[in-house]
Amino acid sequence: MNRRSFTGALTAATALLSIPIVSCAAGNNTGSKNFALQKSEDEWRKLLSPAQFSILRKEGTEPPHSSPLDKVKEAGTFVCAGCALPLFHTQAKYDSGTGWPSFWQPIEDNSVATKKDYKLILPRTEYHCSRCGGHQGHIFDDGPKPTGLRYCNNGLALNFIPEGEALPELLT
Ligand SMILES: [Zn+2]
Fold this sequence. Notes:
single chain, 17% helix, binds zinc ion, 7-stranded mixed sheet, alpha+beta, Metal Binding Protein, Guanine Nucleotide Exchange Factor, Chain A, 10 strands, 3 helices
């Protein structure tokens, strides 16, 4: 697939879902935008493990097949490991074979927000928690129906709450 058709397909797919595209200059800090939850880098360092901080606040990526959440199939909710905002339900989870938890749709279109990521030669669509700005993963257009999208998520950026258990309170 060439670059033009890839980005074209992704743009069309995201437009279809009404996902707001936030244009940003290349960079790795999503913390400075107008997110509902604002915390300093030092505050996040205290709240998160070093590995979680690297992913959520510095757009790091965990090794594939490293997260037990990749194998979760039971019903429940995946919440942001930073602020506890519910982001995905198991109903929209599938085994992509990539070694990262993969979903074809977030709980709400506005659960996550996106921006272009130019770290690799091919631009990718980065997505993050819409409440705290914590980086979650990247969206690709090779997912299953009905959306055709693959939300490729870092397991360390999520916590899984099985159905029937109370969801954690949002971090304030
Ligand atoms: Zn969050």
